[in-house]
Amino acid sequence: MANTNGNTQTLHDAFLDELRDAYDAEKQLIKALPKLAKAAESDNLRTAFETHLEETEGHAQRLERVFMSLGEKARGKHCDGIAGIIEEGKAIMDEDFEGETLDACLIAAGQRAEHYEMAAYGTLVAWARAMGHDEAVGLLEQILEEEKAADEKLTSLAEGGINSSAASMAHGEEEAEAPARSARASAGKSAGRSRASAPRSSGSSGSRSNGSRSNGRSSSKRRR
């Protein structure tokens, strides 16, 4: 944030700087969300991205009204943070993911953007309220609530089956069968140890044999 007039900058200057950052972020997302929607395999996820695209266009318009309420011209300042998040999303789409695995990764990319924006708008609301910019507070709060709702929608889709379906395909059948084979092998070893440690009973033939030898020795002594 450059100081162009040589004076110490204030919270109002910081507020405008953050506002321009948010405005640029919304403009970047307006271009990025259609790509996420197109890549989504789930119809529900595609609809969620398309719905949020419409909301994002509305966010940019609300921010323009915030600038107007402050007597400022609406203009953006390149948002490096959201640009990096969008690049991460592009990298995901370049991978060989498909089906629910791809959708789970797209949700993660979408929520990174939502969390970034929720933090930014939370700060803007707090600063606007502290400085008494009431009209700005109302407009920014509307944006913040829609960002939270979009994040919750993505969470519900992830927890509603996409994550569990992706997790079920995370390991091949051979790896999934390995724990079961290990359990069977352990059970077999335990059974073998139990048989080996069981006490052996004395057979009746052994008793008769011992008795016969004893009787033979006694008879011999009597004859002598």
Summarize, please.
With 224 residues, the chain is an all-alpha fold.
Tell me what you see in this structure.
- By secondary structure, this protein is mainly alpha-helical.
- It has a domain at 11-166: Ferritin, core subunit, four-helix bundle (Ferritin).
- Helices cover 82% and strands 0% of the residues.
- The relative contact order is 0.10.
Supply the key terms.
224 residues; mainly alpha; Ferritin; elongated; disordered C terminus
Structural topology:
Blueprint: H1 11-39, H2 43-69, H3 80-94, H4 99-130, H5 134-168, H6 173-197, H7 204-223
Note the run of SSEs as H and E: HHHHHHH
Which architecture of the domain at 11-166 would the CATH scheme give at its second level?
A: Up-down Bundle
* Measured distance between first and last alpha carbons: 125 Å
Name of the CATH homologous superfamily of the domain at 11-166: Ferritin, core subunit, four-helix bundle
Provide the helix percentage: over 70%
Text of the CATH class of the domain at 11-166: Mainly Alpha
Q: Using the alpha-carbon principal axes, give the shape.
A: elongated
**For the report, how would you describe the main beta sheet?**
none
Mean pLDDT score: 84
Measured by DSSP, the beta-strand proportion falls in: under 5%
The low-confidence runs, each spanning 5 or more residues with pLDDT under 50, are 176-180, 201-224
Query: What structural category characterises the helix and strand content?
Result: mainly alpha
How many beta-strand elements? 0
Radius of gyration: 37 Å
Query: Can you count the helices?
Result: 7
